[in-house]
UniProtKB/TrEMBL annotation:
Residues 3-142 form the N-acetyltransferase domain. The lineage of its organism: Bacteria, Pseudomonadati, Pseudomonadota, Betaproteobacteria, Burkholderiales. SUPFAM superfamilies: Acyl-CoA N-acyltransferases (Nat). It holds the Pfam family Acetyltransf_7. It comes from Roseateles asaccharophilus. This is GNAT superfamily N-acetyltransferase. It comes from the Bacteria.
């Protein structure tokens, strides 16, 4: 069940915030850092519809991702799926679409998140460990 991509508009913010909270809640609670106000502020600070795409399956928005072009590389800011849609190959499909652009990719994943294993399985390497996040990089041809 592969998704289709749909553009993002300013009016989609609240729905996307809901997906973000649903996807991150368990990991943030495990770290004692769940705060809906912080989730809102972080998404708002990186809300750039021109870099974002909804992931749609059977007419339903099941997630989204954000890819920022940064001088010869790409920064994956968000890749969130509703928990019921995780583990079905959608995230792997998204990474393949991004990798096909042929540029290095950087991202940060929350410590204690299952996303860390996901990114390691898909060829990303740890480049820095921070208090709450782990920074990753994927190189073309790696």
């Amino acid at each position: 069940m592969l998704p289709t991509l749909a553009p993002v508009a300013d009016a989609d913010f609240e729905a996307m915030l809901s997906v973000r909270i649903e996807a991150l809640r368990e990991s943030l609670e495990r770290l004692g850092r769940f705060n809906p106000d912080v989730a809102r502020a972080r998404l708002k600070s990186q809300f750039r519809p021109e870099w974002m795409r909804h992931l749609v399956v059977d007419g339903e928005r099941v997630g989204y991702f954000t890819v920022e072009p940064r001088g010869g590389e790409l920064r994956l800011h968000h890749l969130y799926l509703k928990p019921a849609m995780q583990g079905q190959g959608i995230g792997a499909w998204v990474l393949e679409q991004i990798k096909a652009r042929g540029l290095p990719i950087t991202l940060a994943a929350l410590r204690e998140s299952r996303a860390n294993d996901f990114y390691l399985r898909h060829g990303f390497k740890v480049v820095e460990e921070q208090a709450f996040d782990i920074e990753y990089r994927w190189e073309v041809g790696a």
